[in-house]
Design a protein that fits this description.
Elements (H helix, E strand, L loop, with lengths): L1 H27 L4 E4 L2 E2 L13 E2 L2 E4 L5 H8 L18 H14 L6 E8 L12 E5 L11 H8 L16 H4 L17 H6 L25 E7 L11 E4 L16 E3 L8 E2 L3 E3 L6
Parallel strand pairs: 7-10
Antiparallel strand pairs: 1-4, 2-3, 4-11, 5-6, 7-8, 8-9
Length: about 290
């Protein structure tokens, strides 16, 4: 009878170990986030394809930050189109990094940014930006942050599961992207036209109502433009006049929805098509 008892004991240990690991994984993975496994760029439409760049693994929010999430952390709601499950919009780059730090603090995480509001950023050359907070990175912090442009494009392009779609999850923009042609009462056609957009009552849409991409990330093409960390420049420099925005928005042309499209906006700029999503670095123990 000794051998069956030993086997039973081993089986129980395996089950307990598996449950413990599953619980640990769930605690490690933030709610409503996707683990984007790192690697080289596979999406051949990406502007980083064949550039010899490798992206480390990270967690990315499945959805753009919603108004519900914003209100829970920041209190008010700056959005023009108000509803809990619409993406928050009319937020500047400074608003976005402030949200990241405040959410990190509230959840007991290390703040990823040091924000100095008293000293103007000497690397910000935009004469129209009167804010110019000096924002620096705390390397190794486990808190929330904005994606880099490369991280954003890697995830939008499907990561290691990429099928090289032009848009995030499809070669057909209407399947995955909200833009000026489909974000209103009826489908528009022809050239981009602001009066037509206004008359069509275009606006942001409830998160996750278009199909996701290969990684189960939603709305990376369209809905709102998403802030990234970097300055908009031809190379990886630490100064500039604009910050990078990606993904297009409900006002923008279909071409802006492409994974490779690179937009720019003043860091203190905001509008009803400007939002963001957040990421967190993967734990060193999990890499």
């Amino acid at each position: 009878m000794r051998k069956p008892v030993v086997i039973l004991h081993m089986a129980i240990m395996v089950v307990v170990s598996a449950c413990t690991q599953e619980k640990a994984d769930m605690q490690e993975k933030p709610d409503r986030f996707v683990l984007v496994k790192g690697g080289a760029f596979i999406n051949s439409t990406s502007s980083f394809y064949n550039k010899g760049m490798t992206i480390p693994s990270f967690y990315m929010s499945k959805y753009e930050v919603t108004q519900r999430e914003w209100i829970e952390i920041m209190g008010g709601n700056p959005s023009q189109f108000k509803s809990n499950e619409l993406p928050v919009e009319t937020v500047s780059w400074y608003d976005a990094v402030a949200y990241c730090n405040k959410r990190s603090f509230q959840e007991g995480l290390q703040e990823y940014y040091t924000i100095d509001k008293s000293n103007k950023d000497p690397h910000n050359s935009n004469e129209h930006d009167v804010v110019k907070w000096t924002v620096t990175i705390n390397e190794g912090a486990n808190g929330y942050r904005l994606p880099t442009e490369a991280e954003w494009e890697y995830a939008a392009g499907g990561g290691q599961l990429s099928k090289s779609y032009a848009y995030s999850g499809s070669n057909q923009a209407n399947e995955v992207a909200w833009n000026w042609m489909n974000a209103g009462d009826k489908i528009l056609s022809g050239d981009w036209n602001w009066p037509a957009i206004e008359n069509n009552h275009n606006q942001t849409k409830t998160i996750g109502t278009k199909q996701p991409n290969e990684l189960e990330l939603y709305d990376m093409s369209g809905n709102v433009r998403e802030w990234c960390w970097e300055w908009y420049a031809d190379s990886n420099v630490e100064s500039g006049s604009y910050r990078v925005v990606k993904g297009g928005g409900w006002i923008g042309d279909v071409s802006n929805n492409a994974v490779s499209f690179r937009g720019k906006f003043e860091a203190n700029g905001f509008g009803p098509d400007q939002g963001f999503r957040v990421i967190r670095s993967e734990s060193p123990a999990k890499s």
